[in-house]
Each structure stands twice: as structure tokens, then as C-alpha cells.
Specification:
By secondary structure, this protein is of the alpha/beta class. The protein is 42% helix and 11% strand. It has 19 helices and twelve strands. Strands 1-2-3-7-6-8-9-10-11-12 form a ten-stranded mixed β-sheet, with helices on both faces. A two-stranded antiparallel ribbon has the order 4-5. Helix 18 links the parallel strand 11 (482-487) and strand 12 (521-523).
Length: 554
């Protein structure tokens, strides 16, 4: 699921690469209609292994600092026609440092470690780029991993400079202020239906016949070509959110090519869930997380003065909604922008203090914090529209969706009665899929049998809203030998390399040694946010989050 809008080789391998490319898909991964695509993937990967990737200083357009370097890898637009049209995916890298610790710095002794290859990361979406992710090598939580691995990010097909997809003028997409009624009227529904139809038509008009090739299966095939281009016999990969879904597709398609895989905040891969029901399931989970936030704010009423109960905090929030509906803050922050900013608390609890402060100050008459946090950034408009276009294309192409508006109206009206916070916002985001004209795929039945995969690691927060916890349990059942690490009582979306040392210890042990807990593991929740600590907007962690999730305001 996509946090952006509502919610990243050497020719000398020779026969070694060619022998690994011939592996058959795993049992259970008999994906209908993929035989020609499978052959095309072999051809594309062979070609990429011979060409490799030439890494140089990153183009100015990427705005990435040294020591990151950038290159490209060529993939077929259509894997059934590997010699037809090809597109280039952008790739970024920080080479393995080979050393941990820093004598005279943090006081730890320098330790030389052996390089273990490349670790490729995808932050999800669909539509998110991980070009900035190698910046994580600078963070203490990633130092030991970055000593042993080249940290590799990339922009999937359609994203950023990787043959970018667009469905709408970026200025129109970013228009503000906008409404966001919790219980929309019939006239408002008709307006949104019209907009969804126009958006689907815009995607078709902009991309033409290429539109059908933006799929999760093609994202998995692109990952196989990237592996070959990096010169890796087997892939080490970490996917977060939606990245877990096409990572699992990869594991099913190419199990013998998997070295290590981390699935962080797993999407439920059940074919019946892809994608309509997964999106419906988010709404009760976001309702729960919104309640967690309000309970925390109420606990700290001495700081925020928004109420001593969650219901009082809710009433304060509704007052702010009513006021910005009447008079948008700064002329740009209406209910839609307010809600988009508040949706961030469902993803990351380190936003809680910032958002609570914005609400508190607004009700005191100081609108600046809310304006700063919720006003759309014009500089991000193109990236945000691009991300939304790729999200829409992949989700609509991947699976059948209801085409009768009455089904959407019935399901979301019922759901909004018990989970009003996110329900209709989610429905409007996905509604173009009701009017999609491209062929729909049948979702793959992701499964691997005993011994087909090396051990893989699943990380999940028990109260994650964007990828509810049952999805992690289902993925574990489907990938034989996978092990689940659960952060109990927590709800941050994407927990690898975060504030929980227990989670990070399991992640590090797995990536560095291949070892997983025997029967899984449980971690206590990380510490609750400090109510008087506002995260600075210019540190490395905040900048990395902004780059990986450009639509989530800091």
C-alpha cells in the first residue's frame, strides 16, 4: 500500500549467470500466461549481466549527495517481447564500507568485515522510489549492514526518471484547498466518480499501449534483471509495504536466485485480497491507529490542552476541520490537506508530537504550524502525481476490481459507519480502477514449498494500519521456512532500522549471518513519542523519509 498519497554486473560472470537463469519457478507459482514472459526474463537478465551497470556521479536531477553514485539498467517494456521496446531504470548505490566502528569517533574499535554483495531495497507504493535509500548507510542503525553490503536503491518502472508515467497535470493533481467529507453527499460522490473516470482516461491517453505493462509481476521481473546487472548470483532484497508483495512474487518465480529476503510490514498476498479487499481492510486498521493517537494526545493534555479523553481530542480535531472548511489556513489548507497531514499519524508515531502541536496551536489562534505541515509543496507536485499514476496503474492492472459503483458505495458506506477516519479517502484514491480499460490480471497464488527458499525474515508491527498484521501471518504461511518477528503493541509502518533495538538486532543478525529466530520472535514496543520533542525537518532521518515518501508532510 502506498504511503505516498494516503498512505523503493559483470560480463565475467559468464556461465555462472547463465546456469542460475535457467531455474524453474517454484511449485505453486504456476502463474497463468507467463511462459513467454519467463523466457523474456531470461533473455533480459542475460543481456543485463553482460552489460552490467556503470556507476558515476548522480545526475543533478536526482539531488543525491556523494558518496552515492548512479547508473541505469535496461529492461523490456513487455517481457513477452524482450527484443522490442526497452526502458531504463535508474539505480543508486553506496559501496560497502568494509569497516564498522570509527576509532576516535564513537569510541568503538574499527572492525574489518567481508563484503556480502548488494542489498537492494524497495520502499513500496506502488509508485515509490528508493533512489535516496543508500543515504541510510550513514545512520547508526545501518552501519554494520552497510559495512558488509553495497546499499542499492532504484526507481521502479514508471517512477521518477525510469520511463515516468503521468495521468494528470501535476498542478491539477496538487490543487488546494479541497474538501474531504467523512460522510459524502450524493452530489459529492457524483463529482468524485466523474474525476475517477477522467483520471483513468488520462492514464490511458498518456501511456497508450504501454499502460498494461505496469504490473507487480513486471516489477518482480525487473528485480531479476537488476540482480543480474549488479553481478549478483543470488539476490539479497528488503521490501517494505507493497515492496513485500512483489518481493514475494520474486521469491515464488525465482526461488533459487534468493539469498536473503526481508519483508517489512507485509501486504496480505492472498489473491482474494489483491487489491480491493486489502484496501477495505486498511480502514478499520487506520481507525484503530487514529484512536491510539488520540489516546496519546489525551494522556498529554497538560502539553496540548486538546482534551483528557480521546473523544474530546476528536471534537477538537473536528473544530479544526470545520474552521479550515470555512476559511482555509494560509489559503491552501482545507479539510483535504488537513486530513492528508493527519493521515501521517497512522503511519508513523514520530509524527504524533508535530501533528498534535499543529492542532493545539491552531485552536489557540496560531495557524503557522498547521500551514507549515499541511500546505502542499509545489516542488513535490510532479513527483506526487507521478507516484499516484504508477500506484493506480499497477493496482488497477494487477487484479479485477468491482466495475459497478453500487458495490463501492455499499461497501464503503457500511465501512464508514465503524471506521470513518480513512474509508472514503481510500475509496476515492482507488476509484479509477472501477473505470480501467486495460486488461486485468488474475493475482498470482504466491507459495513456496519446503526447501525451495532459504530462510526469509518477516517484520511486522502488531497495530500497523497500512498493512494490517494478518497479512504478515498469511505471508508466513505461504513462504515455507519464513520466520516472523512481531513488534507487539506498536503500529509504525516499516520497522526495519527504526527505534526498536530488538527488531534491529534480528534484522542485523539475519542479513549478516543468515540466522533467524527458530520459531519467530516477539519484541516489546518501542518507546512512546516524547510529547515535547519535535523532530527537526533537516536531519538525515527526516530527509530520507521525505525522499522515500514525498507525499507525507513532515
Amino acid at each position: 500500500m502506498r504511503a505516498v498519497a494516503k498512505y523503493g554486473a559483470l560480463a565475467t560472470l559468464g556461465s555462472l549467470v547463465l546456469s542460475t537463469l535457467s531455474a524453474a519457478p517454484a511449485r505453486g507459482a504456476d502463474f497463468a500466461g507467463t511462459s513467454s514472459e519467463a523466457r523474456g526474463t531470461v533473455v533480459a537478465a542475460e543481456r543485463a549481466a553482460a552489460a552490467g551497470i556503470t556507476f558515476r556521479a548522480c545526475p543533478k536531477a536526482e539531488m543525491l549527495p556523494a558518496p552515492l553514485t548512479c547508473g541505469t539498467v535496461e529492461v523490456p517494456l513487455d517481457y513477452a517481447r524482450p527484443d522490442g521496446e526497452r526502458i531504463k531504470l535508474t539505480v543508486s548505490r553506496v559501496k560497502a564500507s568494509g569497516k564498522t566502528g570509527a576509532a576516535g569517533g564513537d569510541g568503538k574499535a574499527v572492525e574489518t568485515v567481508q563484503r556480502q554483495g548488494a542489498l537492494v531495497y524497495n520502499p513500496g507504493g506502488p509508485g515509490a522510489s528508493s533512489m535516496a535509500f543508500p543515504m541510510a548507510a550513514q545512520m547508526p542503525e545501518w552501519k554494520r549492514i552497510a559495512a558488509a553490503y553495497d546499499i542499492v536503491g532504484y526507481a521502479p518502472r514508471g517512477v521518477g526518471r525510469s520511463a515516468p508515467l503521468s495521468c494528470q497535470d501535476a498542478g491539477d493533481f496538487a490543487k488546494a484547498p479541497t474538501l474531504a467529507p467523512t460522510y459524502p453527499s450524493e452530489s459529492y460522490k457524483r463529482e468524485r466518480i466523474s474525476g475517477a473516470k477522467a483520471y483513468a482516461q488520462g492514464c490511458a491517453r498518456s501511456a497508450g499501449p504501454a499502460l498494461r505493462h505496469y504490473t507487480s509481476l513486471n516489477n518482480a521481473r525487473d528485480l531479476e534483471v537488476l540482480r543480474a546487472a549488479l553481478g549478483e548470483k543470488k539476490l539479497s532484497f528488503m521490501g517494505a509495504s507493497y515492496g513485500t508483495y512483489f518481493g514475494a512474487l520474486y521469491a515464488s518465480l525465482f526461488p533459487s536466485h534468493v539469498r536473503r529476503m526481508v519483508f517489512d510490514s507485509a501486504v496480505n498476498p492472498d489473491p482474494d485480497q489483491i487489491w480491493y479487499r486489502n484496501n477495505l481492510d486498511q480502514s478499520p486498521a487506520f481507525e484503530q491507529r487514529w484512536a491510539d493517537f488520540r489516546a496519546w494526545v489525551a494522556k498529554h493534555d497538560a502539553t496540548y490542552h486538546l482534551g483528557t479523553t480521546p473523544d474530546e481530542v476528536q471534537r477538537g480535531y473536528e473544530r479544526v476541520r470545520a474552521e479550515v472548511a470555512h476559511r482555509p489556513a494560509g489559503g491552501k489548507v482545507g479539510p483535504g490537506q488537513l486530513h492528508a497531514a493527519m493521515l501521517g499519524v497512522g503511519y508513523y508515531d514520530d509524527y504524533w508530537a508535530m501533528r498534535a502541536t499543529a492542532l493545539s496551536e491552531f485552536l489557540k489562534g496560531n495557524t503557522k504550524p498547521l500551514i507549515d505541515q499541511a500546505t502542499p509543496h509545489p516542488a513535490a507536485a510532479v513527483d506526487n502525481e507521478n507516484g499516484n499514476a504508477v500506484y493506480t496503474a499497477v493496482q488497477c492492472n494487477d487484479a479485477p476490481w468491482p466495475t459497478d459503483w453500487k458495490v463501492w458505495d455499499r461497501d464503503n458506506t457500511e465501512l464508514a459507519e465503524r471506521a470513518p477516519f480513512e474509508t472514503w479517502d481510500n475509496a476515492w484514491m482507488n476509484l479509477p480502477c472501477a473505470f480501467w480499460k486495460e486488461p486485468r490480471q488474475q493475482p498470482a497464488d504466491i507459495r513456496t514449498g519446503p526447501g525451495e527458499l532459504p530462510p526469509t525474515l518477516i517484520l511486522a508491527a502488531e497495530r500497523d494500519a497500512a498493512t494490517p498484521y494478518p497479512g504478515a501471518l498469511d505471508l508466513q504461511r505461504r513462504l515455507a521456512g519464513s520466520v516472523l518477528v512481531t513488534e507487539r503493541g506498536a503500529g509504525t509502518h516499516g520497522i526495519a532500522g527504526g527505534p526498536n533495538e530488538c527488531v534491529n538486532d534480528h534484522l542485523e543478525a539475519y542479513l549478516l549471518t543468515g540466522k533467524t529466530p527458530v520459531r519467530g520472535a516477539e519484541c516489546a514496543p518501542h518507546a512512546a513519542p516524547n510529547p515535547v520533542s519535535l523532530e527537526p525537518a533537516d536531519d538525515t532521518r527526516s530527509e530520507l523519509r521525505r525522499r522515500l515518501n514525498p507525499g507525507v508532510q513532515l
